[in-house]
Write a structure and sequence with these properties.
The protein has 152 residues and is of the alpha/beta class. It has helices at 13-25, 42-51, 87-95, 116-121, 142-151; strands at residues 3-7, 28-31, 73-81, 84-85, 102-109, 128-135, 138-139.
Length: 152
């Protein structure tokens, strides 16, 4: 079974996990990026995204130069943005059909997962997911993360 890790990360929590999985499991990795970068001002992004909460916004993405057909399994990583997946991840799911793949999701957040899982399920069936709460840039349960990576 060939596995690809696909993730978006704004402040690198999700990225650190994606890279750790890639390193430990030797899986390929794909970083999703918006065509237009978000502001580097965190509070500005938080406020702008709050204003768009529930709009299910689709943003333009940078081109993806990976042939998804090669992969049987996708490990998809997203931060939570206002109780749902980040718009970059929604945009990816909106434009790519993953129905022929096994999809496993990891979700980083500050403790409020909201309706993220159900929202992802609107786009694809998922095998399982893990909720990974952070305190700022520190994962709350590092053991749960290691156990989960080992189980993949
Ligand atoms: C725009 C924005 C909205 C957020 N909304 C939530 C939220 O609804 N619930 C939550 O627990 N954390 C929320 N967070 C915190 C992030 O989910 C958390 O810090 C995450 O681990 C960041 O991942 P990243 O470093 O990969 O970008 C939000 C962060 C941003 C920037």
């Amino acid at each position: 079974m060939k596995t690809l890790i696909i993730y978006y990360s704004y402040t690198k929590n999700t990225e650190k996990i994606a890279q750790k999985i890639a390193e430990l499991k030797n899986y390929d990795i794909l970083k999703l990026e918006p065509l237009t970068d978000y502001s580097t001002d965190y509070q500005q992004v938080v406020a702008e995204e709050e204003a768009k909460m529930n709009s299910e916004e689709i943003v333009a993405l940078k081109p993806i130069n990976v042939d998804l057909k090669q992969y049987d399994r996708i490990i998809l990583g997203t931060p939570v943005w206002w109780y749902t997946m980040a718009p970059v991840v929604r945009s990816f799911l909106h434009t790519h059909n993953l129905n022929d793949k096994q999809v496993i999701v990891f979700i980083t957040n500050g403790g409020w997962l909201g309706h993220t899982v159900n929202d992802i399920k609107k786009y694809c069936e998922i095998e399982s997911y893990i909720n990974l709460p952070f305190n700022g840039d520190k994962i709350k349960d590092a053991q749960a993360l290691s156990d989960w990576i080992n189980s993949l």
